[in-house]
Amino acid sequence: MPSRRATGNSTCAADAPVGTIGGVGFRFRRLEVADLGLLHGWLNEPGVVRWWEGQDVSWEGVQRAYAPTADNWREQWLAFEDDQPVGWLQCYRAVDNLDETEDWWDLGVDPQAAGIDYLLADAARRGSGVGSRMIRAFALKIVLGLHPEWTQVCAGPFAANIASCRALEKAGFRCLRITDDEEGPCHLMALDRADA
Q1: How far apart are CA 95 and CA 81, in angstroms?
Q2: Does residue 29 have a pLDDT over 50?
Q3: Are the C-beta atoms of residues 185 and 178 closer than 8 Å to each other?
Q4: pLDDT higher for 45 or 92?
Q5: What is the pLDDT of residues 137-160, one digit of tens each?
Q6: How far is residue 183's CA from residue 3's CA, in Å, rounded to a whole number?
Q7: Residue range of the domain that includes 139
């Protein structure tokens, strides 16, 4: 994903989390090669692909970019609710993805932070709170739960993706700053371990 740069001294409209939602009912498992067909379909859903920054989401592109490998710098997960796959999430040490995170340190992000990306698969379930619960459960169970050295969980959705920004707020994230991406302004959102 293209890097996101700070713009002036602007801050997000909502500095404090709106509230938190528990992650009861979600389970996560690592993405497997057999899951790439499912992920390919999700990435090509119009409500998802529009936010994917022009990335190649063709079958070949998904195989290249998302196939799990032993030397991969990120962890990719599927989220399940009631034993049904409902989303894809990834986490990574922010310092390992400088194309995305190079300006984060000047904006209040801890050097030991993690970055996340995510999508909620079912368009009909968006706006119902499932995404917030999925993100919160992932942040607590996987990102912070499996990585005691990580101090924050950060994400940078486009400001125009109001549903994604709102889902993060409901999951307990706060907006640190508005950043600038080649594609438009983004909200740099963070959940601190101490606040989780």
Answers
A1: 31
A2: yes
A3: yes
A4: 92
A5: 999 999 999 999 999 999 999 998
A6: 10
A7: 4-195
Return the CATH number at 77.
Answer: 3.40.630.30
Listed residue (180, 20, 10) closest to 103, CA to CA: 180
Average pLDDT, whole number, for the chain?
A: 83
Residue of 107, 84, 86, 104 whose CA lies nearest to 95: 104
DSSP string, 88-112: EEEEEEGGG-HHHHTTGGGGT--TT
Q: How many helices (H) and strands (E) does the chain have?
A: 7, 8
Count of C-beta atoms within a 10 Å radius of residue 55? 13
The count of domains in the chain is 1
Contact yes or no for 181/2 (Cβ under 8 A): yes
The region, left, alpha or beta by phi > 0 then psi within -120 to 50, assigned to residue 184 is left
Dihedral of CA atoms 2, 58, 167, 138 in degrees, nearest 10, equals -90
Q: What is the mean pLDDT of residues 96-125?
A: 87
Q: Kindly report the length of the chain.
A: 196
pLDDT band at residue 108 using 50, 70 and 90 as cut-offs: confident
